[in-house]
Every structure is written in C-alpha cells, then in structure tokens.
Amino acid sequence: QVQLVESGGGLVQSGGSLRLSCAASGFTLDYHGIAWFRQAPGKEREGVSCISSSDDTTTYADSVKGRFTISRDIANNTVHLQMNSLKSEDTAVYYCAKDYESGYDYWGQGTQVTVSS
After folding, report:
1. Residue 29 class from Cβ within 10 Å (0-12 exposed, 13-18 middle, 19+ buried)?
2. Cβ(2)–Cβ(27) under 8 Å?
3. pLDDT tens digits for range 32-60
4. Residue 62: predicted pLDDT
5. d(CA 32, CA 43)
6. DSSP 8-state symbol, 90
7. What pLDDT was estimated at residue 54?
8. SS3 call for 29
9. Residue 74 gets which letter from DSSP?
10. N or C: which end of the chain has fewer CB atoms below 10 A?
11. Which residue has the higher pLDDT, 30 or 95?
C-alpha cells in the first residue's frame, strides 16, 4: 500500500528555518521521483520543488530558489525539504507527491507551515 506521510511543519518567525520530511512506503524512491507542493488559503496549489529518481536532479520554483533545498534519504525512503530564510508568503499547507508518468498519483495529507512576520 502506497503511503506518503509529511511531518516537520509548524510555526516559525520570519527568517527562520524548518525541515519538512516526506516518509514514503509501499514503493521505493529508487524508481520514483517526489515533488513538494503547497497551497495557501484562497490560492491555487503550486509546485515548490521536485527531485528525480534517476540522478537526483532537483528543480525549484523561482520563489524558493536559494532558500529551499530538497534531498533524498534512500536508506530511510524519505525526502526532505530544508526551508531557510522563511517569509510570511511561505505560509501554506505543504504536500509531497509521488510521480507517475507525467503527473502524480499519490499525495500525502499535508503539513501546515506558518511563518509569522
């Protein structure tokens, strides 16, 4: 059974850091990429970052480049999102998703990130 469980969200002051984790089960990260998305109240869901299964290629939204870093822990089948220099506009529910063909087929429940100014 495929499952994605996010953790690490919370309340942090502007300029602070958080590290999100996405624990995967039912499949291996060796064969599937993982992406992080976020959705703020009243806004559409947006892609934040993703990491490929083949060569650890990473991509980032322009809004988080230089501040967020995505990484994989293959031994623990977990993907992390290190978020530094957080801003109030980073406040959102963050989700991880498993890639499938040209989209994503499994999603986690999400973890809330709130950045106070």
Report:
1. buried
2. yes
3. 999 999 999 999 999 999 999 988 899 99
4. 98
5. 28
6. G
7. 84
8. coil
9. G
10. N
11. 95
Going by their DSSP bridges, the two strands 10-13 and 111-116 should be labelled as parallel
User: Hey, what are 29's tokens?
Assistant: 């990260």
77: Cβ contacts below 8 Å, ≥ 6 apart: 23, 24, 25, 28, 29
CB 114 within 8 A of CB 86: no
Three-state secondary structure call for residue 103: strand
Joined together, the tokens standing for residue 101 give 């063909």
CB 94 within 8 Å of CB 81: yes
The token duo for 34 is 């993982």
Task: Compute the distance between CA of residue 57 and CA of residue 25 in angstroms, rounded to an integer.
Answer: 21
